[in-house]
């Protein structure tokens, strides 16, 4: 299970090469709530945000969002950042890492650990499918240029386990190259460097199956 939020466009501490490796059950369970997963993704996109901003985006009560943000912070998945507002009552949050992974081998032993890992993996996959369906419903609003740029594809090569691992590594390297390009544009041009850029959801899956 790996979550790969996009490189934060403004002010966040997370970067795609940063990797938070989850090995304990408590931290994994902190990700098992759908709203917490959405909040972590939203923070990765925004870089930094307050509970009020995230609540408006999620359509949830500020008190509920604040509660779930604190739970994520308790497990070191996000952190409070200072200096973003003159209002001391406003707490700003940022992701600690750009990527979060819970390796299968860390949760393949005890039944409770394996079950929790499976539940979080299914939750992530459901949310990714929901994001794709939402785009399908809303694609007309994105305009001709974005509709022409968006892509979806399926390939079914016959591979060995070693080759599958190599393919995954190469695909992740390609995405990292484009993330680095976006970072360079932002650092070189500030707001102008981010013109016409949007968070693009890229999902990579490679697994064996039998028809």
Determine the N-to-C terminus distance.
24 Å
CATH structural architecture: Orthogonal Bundle
Radius of gyration: 18 Å
CATH class division: Mainly Alpha
- Seen as an oligomer or otherwise, the chain set is single chain
Shape: globular
Assign the CATH superfamily: Winged helix-like DNA-binding domain superfamily/Winged helix DNA-binding domain
Give the helix/strand class: mainly alpha
The residue-averaged pLDDT reads 87
Report the portion of residues in β strands: 5-15%
Pfam families: HTH_20 (PF12840)
Protein name: Transcriptional regulator
Keywords: DNA-binding, Transcription, Transcription regulation
GO molecular function: DNA binding; DNA-binding transcription factor activity
3D structure, described in words:
Residues 26-109 form the HTH arsR-type domain. Keywords: DNA-binding, Transcription, Transcription regulation. This protein is mainly alpha-helical. It has one domain (2-131, 153-193): Winged helix-like DNA-binding domain superfamily/Winged helix DNA-binding domain (Arc Repressor Mutant, subunit A), CATH 1.10.10.10. Helices cover 51% and strands 9% of the residues. The protein is built from seven helices and six strands, in the order E-E-H-H-E-H-H-E-E-E-H-H-H. The chain has a three-stranded mixed beta sheet with strand order 1-6-2, with no helix packed on it. The chain has a three-stranded antiparallel beta sheet with strand order 3-5-4. The longest helix has 33 residues, at 161-193. The chain starts with a strand and ends in an 18-residue tail after the last helix.
